[in-house]
Amino acid sequence: MPKPDTAAALAAVDAHFDEFVEELQQLCRIRSRRQEPEQMEATAEFIAGSVRRWGGEAEIIPWEQSYPYVLAEVAGEGDKALLHFTHYDVEVEPAGDDADWISPPYAAEIHDGRLYARGVADDKGVIMSRIHAAAAWKLAGLTPPVTNRIIFEGKKWLHSPGLGSFVQAHADRLASDAALWENSWLDGEDRLLLKLAEKGVLYLRLTAQTLPRDLTSQNTALLPAATARLAAALAQLQRPDGTVTIPGFADDARPPTDEERALLEKVAFDGDFLRKRAQVERFTGDLDDQAAAVAIRTVPTLTVAGIAGGDMRDDVTLGIPSTASAKLEIRLVPGQDPERVLGCVRDHLAATGFGDLRIEVMATSRPNLTDHRDPFVALVADAARRVYGTEPVIEPYTQWIGNQGVIADRPIVGVGVSRADSGVDGPNENIRLDDYKAGIKHVIEVMAALAVAE
Amino acid sequence: MPKPDTAAALAAVDAHFDEFVEELQQLCRIRSRRQEPEQMEATAEFIAGSVRRWGGEAEIIPWEQSYPYVLAEVAGEGDKALLHFTHYDVEVEPAGDDADWISPPYAAEIHDGRLYARGVADDKGVIMSRIHAAAAWKLAGLTPPVTNRIIFEGKKWLHSPGLGSFVQAHADRLASDAALWENSWLDGEDRLLLKLAEKGVLYLRLTAQTLPRDLTSQNTALLPAATARLAAALAQLQRPDGTVTIPGFADDARPPTDEERALLEKVAFDGDFLRKRAQVERFTGDLDDQAAAVAIRTVPTLTVAGIAGGDMRDDVTLGIPSTASAKLEIRLVPGQDPERVLGCVRDHLAATGFGDLRIEVMATSRPNLTDHRDPFVALVADAARRVYGTEPVIEPYTQWIGNQGVIADRPIVGVGVSRADSGVDGPNENIRLDDYKAGIKHVIEVMAALAVAE
């Protein structure tokens, strides 16, 4: 088929933009916090209602370890399909003080061309931009040129433990030629970031148990403390500065190509800002900013996210702790297999005399990477040039942990409607209405281009 | 003066024993728990009232970081003075379930010749035995042969942070030729244990801070985690089995003489019981029971009593912990100087690259040891032979942390009125009334012997 003309759909966006914004505001007025199950249900209902209002189909699907998924489809012409992934929960990280807001976080007020609302940048703006992009074709009296399939996820847990089984169970309804992910934005120079990768995670709890219960420390000369044993085990896993010392840990990490390195060096990285925030003189390993920008995206890391053991009351306590635990976040880079890395950890603990420590896998996700030379990337970039009038920034690796791995069999590009300074999860989270409009138009252009892609 | 005749005082104990027991029961019915300030005050009032009732003087002295001290004096003939140390708080360790008691823990009922009450073995039986020993002389129409000075301490904190300044401020009223401490008992063969030493403690909190606040673990490749840094520092202090690796740590530990070792080997030590309780096959360093009994009393130890850092919620959390802390209990043996050992810890951390860790001293006490060849020890042992008809067991070193160091300028012997199986701080804590009577008589004999000691 000939490349669809986007003019009518783009004009519909302009004509109906106030209506679109009003609907986004309504969505933002729902307190979609993981701590408020009823509000999460209401959010799913609202989203499904919106899809249907604009002529699509939507099903609310309760699922294990998750709030209900909303699975939507807006049928298109031709046989191409575009999958969208978004999430409707807000407050991914601990949020700031409501009192610091220009207007209440769930009032969703507009000031100076910006919509201020908790979750508008992550991820409600993205949610509605995908719905409204499909709607625009209908409003223009047309059928979208590709079938749009949209996953709206309501996370109950940050690591989406139910997503894998959900995707597997609905594989036929999620089939697509390509996918637009979320978790991206425009940089300070109005350039859209095309994010092509996500890290995976291997999240472990490591527990040392040396005694059946805490015993009096009169016996320390004779009996081992779990706290000391755990500390000794952790010291085998990395150097004090965090450098991992587990043999084979990074063996399957895919090294960036020279071309990818060159792309990464173009991604904005404010080393001074981070050093100031962290109050450090220099980064680990004395990396300069260019190397640091590459390292945070391409080096697998191990973070001891927490440790606990014994009795930490602010008092003299006289016990030998029987158990002590640590949470280990291992952030995997593209190429890495969580199972293989788990094997490395297990083997190294055994080899260094800590085979008795219990290892629980709390979460796991596979890293993912879309080749920056994939035609879909060029297509999304080209659409961005047309809509934004700037050269998009291709980010072949990112520092984010995510779940792209569950739909790894297709090219995936992350795009969004926010800015680096949108204040996600802080006070005054906002998006610019201009960015919202451009984001809808960009998705329309992607649909049109995908329809005629080889 | 000639050695005082104890017959009349001993007879008074027999004649008034029911009255003595009744008064001990009354004391045991007060809930002298550190969590109940009013009950602690009431306990101090009761004790002071008892001292006065039997013709002594008592002052209730409020003191910093403590419940009120009761300082008592029962004037004696001659110029010799005997100091007693006791404490009136109960529940030193977390107590068991009240439902497991034969009668309620504060009912202080007598069953089969035993008085069951929370705190009766530690330390209320001792308290009243010292008061009643002085009372017996008065009841016999006599003046005690030595002046008795008694400290009744109400601990607010386990480590008695106010005791040092209290003793210093009241040095003249605490002067004595010798002291009877508490925290001892009879073993399974009706032998009184004469405890001649207490360990000291150097209790530290070690804190690593690597960042001003937790930051996202996206940056782990660039920024250090406090958790990993703390674990690495702890691993420098000891081997995984607890063996301390701080240079000079034990340099000032007084090694037991051959004679003291021989004495220690006579102290009952049930290795099988401890191994079973700890569910270990063998003790650290493969010590046999004889060596273990010596080690727990003479080897300084370091216990990581607690560790905490980061976010231990049962969820995937993505932060670089900015701070992490550990509590270190260093149990000092006789000869050791807390300040010197602190210097060793500090120097070693600095030498191994951890000089940035903050060290807070939470508590400190000096170890103490009374030479087993001191004439006062022979005197107390001789009195025990007469009263108990068995050979007392001299324990030149003990595993207990204590505060004897604050009155280190005189011989100190720990004696008591309980048994190894008195169930201190568990359900059914009890003493045998026969032991209570013998304990009073033993103190009477000690008074008489001290009066004529060289």
TrEMBL record, chains A, B:
Gene3D superfamilies: 3.30.70.360, Zn peptidases
Keyword vocabulary terms for this entry: Hydrolase, Metal-binding, Protease
Pfam families tied to this protein: M20_dimer, Peptidase_M20
Superkingdom: Bacteria
Name of the protein in its database record: Peptidase M20
Native organism: Micromonospora chalcea
Residues in Peptidase M20 dimerisation domain copies: 245-351
